[in-house]
Design a protein that fits this description.
The chain is of the alpha+beta class. It has helices at residues 2-7, 45-50, 54-70, and strands at residues 11-18, 23-30, 33-41, 79-86, 92-95.
Length: 101
Amino acid sequence: MRRDYVSRGYRMLAERWRGKAGEADLIFQMANTLVVVEVKKAASVDIAASRLSMRQLHRIAHTAEEYITKGDLDAFMPIRLDLAAVDAAGRVTTVENLTLW
């Protein structure tokens, strides 16, 4: 996952970053957007994806906001939430720009 994002021009900012709101698995920056990636592993990609709840998405969004305030980043920069679903064979399916609704 990390290599995929970096190869597409994303700048890695943090891995397993912990704040008061929770933990962000991977944090990248692309241009003026903060990209937070939640990694879920399971026997299949579908099962992994189903393990991401709306409650977790909200927690991840709050964690991203906290990361921005702690760093040297623009407080008004857009935040994008992605899911990286990993199956038992290590295949990764990335879903970009998840919505909170």
